[in-house]
Amino acid sequence: MSTVSVRDVTVAFESVRVFDRLSLDVEQGELLVLLGPSGCGKSTLLNAIAGLLEVETGQIWIGDRNVTWDEPKDRGIAMVFQSYALYPRMNVRGNLSFGLRMAKTPKDEIDRRVAQAASMLHIEQLLDRRPDQLSGGQRQRVAIGRALVRDAAVFLFDEPLSNLDAQLRNELRDEIKRLHHRLAATTMIYVTHDQIEAMTLADRIAVMKDQKIQQLGTPLDLYYRPANLFVAGFVGSPRMNFVEGTLEQAETGPAFAAGKRHLPLDGYPFTRPPEPGRAVTLGIRPEHIALNGAGNWDGFTVDIVEPLGADNLVWCTDGGLSLEVRTSGEQAIRPGMPMALGIDPRRVSLFAAEGGERL
Prior knowledge:
- The protein is α+β, with helices and mostly antiparallel strands.
- 23% of the residues lie in helices and 35% in strands.
- The protein has helices spanning 42-50, 92-102, 107-121, 136-148, 166-182, 195-201, 219-224, 229-234, and strands spanning 4-13, 16-26, 31-35, 57-62, 65-66, 77-80, 154-158, 187-192, 204-209, 212-217, 241-250, 253-258, 261-264, 279-284, 289-292, 297-307, 311-317, 322-328, 338-343, 349-352.
- Strands 6-7-8-3-9-10 form a six-stranded mixed β-sheet, sandwiched between helices.
- Helix 2 runs parallel beside helix 4 (136-148) and helix 4 (136-148) packs parallel to helix 5.
- It starts with a strand and ends in a 7-residue tail after the last strand.
- 36% of the residues are buried.
């Protein structure tokens, strides 16, 4: 039961600085996801917390202990890697208990912890099998169970589902979510590049790019109020639509203009007073665009329809601008149909064209 605090940490590989005075606080009992593209530094940060990488400056605290220079085994953490890394000659029971046996834990306690972890992960019937007799999902459950038996205060997950197919990823994601609920007091830090994984698992998400945290907040914070253009485009599937334009001052107040398209911005929550003439990017989620005959942007034509069952993804174009719209799968929409788009200014996001910060 511990918090994790990364305080002004710098990590460098010879002359290359990966992080420069990065700070992050993880609350006790929360599941925090480090989300970002490959190379953004999320696994490096996790390895620094685990003690697998030395920090150049700064401190790492777990609970009330400064563990910056402690060995990984002394930090009170358990880690699940992308690779299963199971011992091939041991059965599941042996793999789960190996670390406890090396620590000379009493046999009764080992049996109790192994049984408890196996029950949580629904692998009781697999305890006498070897890794080569298991599916990929079962092997990953064993890898998670090996961490569980340690009874650690902090669990670290480094892209544990990336080697699995789509169905297994969904199943294991559900198991990790249930595990987090059962171990409510245990702090978890989870690394992934999959934003759906992050949105479904996290209490909070730290979105990373270029070795910096771009935004830290709840999944809904990131989805509805992204801090910058990168977060807006990275979080959400399908991704947010973007339209380049400028701010202008209309008779009724500030408005967005993009060629012949105009959108009054009544009700938009500006973070600072709008500056007429400023180049901006307007972002709108596909599900926040209405397909109807009374839209404020008319003159569009349906280009492509992607049926997904419950939803349709509909691409609409006016010859110069193309927008993706998510609508009910029950709507009969065909390519070539004329369409007007309804856009609510309270549901858009505006970003500075230079720098990309939210306006």
